[in-house]
Amino acid sequence: MAASTYLLLVAFLALLTSQAIASDPSPLQDFCVADKHSPVNVNGFVCKDPMTVNADDFFKAAKLDQPRDTTKSKVGSNVTLINVMQLPGLNTLGISLARIDYAPLGQNPPHTHPRATEILTVLEGTLYVGFVTSNQADNTNKLFSKVLNKGDVFVFP
Ligand SMILES: *[C@@H]1O[C@H](CO)[C@@H](O)[C@H](O)[C@H]1NC(C)=O
User: Fold this and answer.
1) Most buried residue, 11, 35, 71, 110, by CB count within 10 Å?
2) 142: exposed, middle or buried (C-beta count within 10 Å: 0-12, 13-18, 19+)?
3) Separation of CA 108 and ligand 1 centre (Å)
4) Ligand 1 centroid vs 70 CA: distance in angstroms?
5) Do 86 and 143 fall into the same domain?
6) Given this model, what pLDDT does residue 72 score?
7) Which residues take part in binding Mn(2+) (predicted)?
């Protein structure tokens, strides 16, 4: 084999091997409804026996259409969470939902979302939202903020 052909082959192989083909493994089961009464301790909830799962495990009459009372809150907001504690069918799915009601000038104090992304929409009123970066190349913390109106959407990476 000529040296140039050999070099070309090596370069081609290097190109091939540098292309990683990776993905998350497919889930092993369609769902893992939380068994909150299991004595087994794991990071999360173990799965309820799939044969005993029913539609109620995926349902919550949460009345999210109803406004919440914001008068008792010191920060002027009331968060209604729908996570695995309220809806066992959410176990392992990596998704949850919240309704937040704000009093005029109310707020949701600064907080973090380790390894989680939030997307938000405004159903009524106007909301000032934003997030601050923590890992800018120039060691600064940059604020990304917007004033949202009814129907607007904002994502918090
Ligand atoms: C949130 O609203 C609900 C329903 O209006 C009320 O029962 C609850 O006390 C409120 N929570 C706070 C922290 O104000």
Assistant:
1) 35
2) exposed
3) 14
4) 7
5) no
6) 96
7) 111, 113, 118
> Per the confidence metrics, is the pTM higher than 0.85?
no
Q: How far is CA 22 from CA 9, 25, 49, 106, in A?
A: 24, 9, 31, 45
The structure tokens listed for 157 are 């990476």
Q: Which of 87, 105, 123 is the last residue of a domain?
A: 105
Q: Looking at residue 138, what is its pLDDT?
A: 84
* H or E stretch covering 153: strand 153-156
Does 111 carry a binding-site annotation? yes
Q: 78 a known binding residue?
A: no
**Residue 37 known to bind ligand:** no
Which numbered atom of ligand 1 lies nearest the CA of 70? 14
What's the pLDDT at 7?
59
Q: Which residues line ligand 1 (CB under 6 A)?
A: 68-69, 72-73, 78
Query: Does pLDDT of 87 surpass 90?
Result: yes
Is residue 95 located within the same domain as residue 118? no
